[in-house]
Every structure is written in structure tokens, then in C-alpha cells.
Amino acid sequence: MFSPKSVSAALATHFGNALVSPAPSPLTDEERRMFSRLKILLTEKEQGLIESEEEDEEALVQESGDSDSDYDAEEDEKPEQRSRKPWTKELCDKMLEFYRSKDLEDGRRGASQSFKRMQNRFRAHMKTEYDLTLLRKYEKTGVIPSERYSAMRQLASDVRAKLGEKMKKGVPIHDTDIRKIALDLNKLNAASGNFKASATWVSKWKVHHRIVSRKVTKFVTRKATKDREKVLKQIDELRIKFLAVVRKNPGIVIINADQTGQVKEMHSTRTLAEEGSKDVVVEIESKSATTHSVTVLPTIYLDGRQHPIVYVHLGEPTGSLPAKKAVYGNKNLVIGAFKSHIMNREAAARYFKEGLVPKGHKVTILNIPKGGTSLAQPLDLCYNQQWKCVMRRLNDAILVHDIDFVLHTRDNLLRCISQVYWAFGAPMFKEYRKYGWYRGGFLTTHPAPFVTPPKYMFGEGSEADCPCSEPGLIRCPYSCNRGIRNKQCRRM
């Protein structure tokens, strides 16, 4: 095994500074060869045969296949951030002449001046050792650093623009594709003759432009991509119609209704577990209840209010609610049933007549374009996701606290929907409900800061008892400290 200690001890002995103890062990063949090289090097230095004051060009790090001289930290900066003044051809020639003007001991020319001397002579232009590297590159290529800098900055910008077009189209892109695009653009624009678009260049380019590798979450066809442009155009037309209706009918009441499906027993797909656990198993009440659904139709107003009634559509084997057995009902529920839980036209018409639109009122209906729900539907942009979050947390809490309550049965599910809808209608969530209209482009003013229902009902403070009810699972949004009368608060 190679021992640096033995080699250094042998060198000390050779130059008259022998170590007293411990006695050096005999050198191996590898150690003997290293001893010989170091002995020669130190001897030549002692005799003045080696000049180490300046950095010789041979001592520079040579570019390998994985490095690229055409991309560096300086090129990541904006032009105004660079402290070095612009270089001209006359200046480059003058600096290069001085850099190579040092005489060797035998009288020959060609040795290099040190960076310190170059900095003293050209202080306004020699700020860092990298500037000296640029001067050496100018000596080899004849390209003025400032021109090369601008060309490479433009090339990096062009690559970003080209890549942005590909990403908007949803094309899968990899590092090799970036390299190919960069080389093609460099060849087209003749930015740099020795540009290689190496792995180092690609890596630095990605960091500078905040490009990272991400897992694909959705695949769509080209037809869907083209249809999206059509949908965006239809949504813009819808917003124009919306504004026209509002201007034509001052004082009009504007509502948004959107059906959302939810399984009878909802649970979070994440849970706390011990680190290193490979299998995480969660116990549920009924497996079939996690695949069978009901449809809920909430309704909100443009001014932030919530409609007092929610429509619930159940899937029943007979196509109707049981006649002999009473079904849970509440004043904020309208319940419909069919063989499928999916809401049909007849059920929608019934709800509009019985629970949504008062008699004698004129109704103007504006439909969200097909495929535009996630882009312009106020309830879908804000309300529905939070609704399902609360339902999942409530289901989880029932299991965690060992509460004897089977949530997926018809009556218990209706009780839960009634209570949660009542909680979502609390005045404190008014700005939250308006946010969906804002995201959909139907309100131009951003709502005031708000807290979402899941964060309030299950967040910090949810463990405290409600001031006007028995201890509950979630924090009551009608709490007394909000100025609402105690009798309005019900056990959650």
C-alpha cells in the first residue's frame, strides 16, 4: 500500500532534515518512483529551473468531452451585472501583447505575465482570472469576448424559445433534444465555431432557465390539444355574453350550479406511517362503498352567497326512493333517485323548478363549453375540490377516533352532506366562494384574503370544543366568536 508518510520521510532524509523517530520503513517500488519524481522537482526548483510565479498556459485545465468553454457563470449574468468594461479588438491586442511580453531567463520571449501583473496594468478590464482565460481564448480563436458573449447569450435565449414552443405542444423533451436544438441553432446563426453543447453546457442552461425533469401526469391526443384552443375561444365568447347579460339586466341574480360525483366512503390516499414501510394498509368500512357514488349539486351566487338548498341524486336499484321506509330529509336537501347515480335531464329540470328558481322569474342560461369545466366553471375551480377534501377528512376522523357511525349508509350519508353543505354556507367563507368566480374570469376584482373550509374546520384550533355545542369532530364555522348566535351552531 502506498504510504505518503514514508515518501515524505525519505525526502526529508535526502534534503538533510532526517526524522528522528520513528525510523522510516523501506520504500516500495511505487513509493520509490514517487520519491524520485518529487526529488527531481524539488531540486530543479531549488536551482531556479522552474518558474511558478505565474500560471502557465500548460497548467490550465484542458477541456474534456464533458465540458464546454462556451457556457460559464459569467454568461448566466445579465449584461448590466458584469463589472468588466467592454473589450475591443485594439484592447485585446494590447493586453495580449503585454501578457506574452515576459522574457525567459535565456532571453527568449513568450512567457506569460501573472494575473496580478495583468490586473495592475488593466484594472478596468481584468477583474477575475476568468478574464485572463477569455484573453487566451481570444488568442486561439480571434473572437472578441464581448462579441462571443452576446452571441452565446442570444443562442441560449433562442434555445429557450424553441424549447418553449415544444413544451406548449406537449412534446416529450430530454437533454439530448436540447443539445440537438442548440447545435442546429448554432450552425444556423454561426454563433460560435467551437461550440459543442456538452453535458455541462446543457446542465447549466437548464439551471439558468429553471428547466427540470418532471413525471408525466397526463397523456392527451393531438386532437384534444387542438380542441383546447377551440374551447379557450368559446370560453372567451362566454365571458363576453356574460358581461352583455349583466349590463343589459341591472340587479340580475347570477348563480352557478355544477354537479360533482363523490363515492359513498371517501378516504385520503396519504397517511402517516413508519419510515421505510413498503406496504401501507388502511382499514375501511365497506370496499364497495369506495366505488359506488352519489351526485351532489351545490349552487353559489356571484356575490359570494350560497344557495340554501343542495340537490343530491342517489342511485337506487328500483330507480326510486323506497316507499315503505322513510328517508332522511332536511330543509337544505332536495333528494332525487334513479337507477344510476348520474343526474339526468328530468332530475335537473325537477330541481330547477322545486329548489332553485322561484316561480315567475325569467331565466337566462349560459352553458360552460364542453371541455371547459376546469377552465371556467366557478364551482369546479374552487368549491368542489374543497368539498371532497372535507368529506375525506371527516371519513378519516370517524375511523381514527373509533366513532360508531357508518357513514356510507343512505341516511347517514345524507346527514353528512346536509351538515357539510350547511357549514360551507357560513358567512366567513363568502370571499372563498367568490374566488371561483374570479378564477373563472367572471369577476375582475380579487376577493379579500380568506381561509378555506378544510383549513379552518380541520386546522389549528379544531381540537377545541365548539362554544355552543358538545365536542365535535371539526371546528364549527358558525362559532360564537364570529358574531353568530349560539343557537345557529350545531354539532358537527
Give a written overview of the molecule.
This protein has 492 residues and is an alpha+beta fold. The protein is built from 15 helices and eight strands. It has helices at 4-14, 29-46, 89-99, 115-121, 129-141, 145-168, 175-189, 199-208, 222-248, 345-356, 373-376, 378-400, 410-424, 430-439, 453-458; strands at residues 102-103, 109-111, 255-257, 260-263, 293-297, 299-301, 310-315, 333-338. A four-stranded mixed beta sheet has the order 4-5-7-8, sandwiched between helices. Helix 6 (145-168) packs across helix 7 and helix 12 (378-400) crosses helix 14 (430-439). The longest helix is centred in the middle third of the chain and has 27 residues, at 222-248. It is elongated.
Q: Which helices and strands appear, and what pairs or packs with what?
A:
Blueprint: H1 4-14, H2 29-46, H3 89-99, E1 102-103, E2 109-111, H4 115-121, H5 129-141, H6 145-168, H7 175-189, H8 199-208, H9 222-248, E3 255-257, E4 260-263, E5 293-297, E6 299-301, E7 310-315, E8 333-338, H10 345-356, H11 373-376, H12 378-400, H13 410-424, H14 430-439, H15 453-458
Parallel strand pairs: 7-8
Antiparallel strand pairs: 1-2, 3-6, 4-5, 5-7
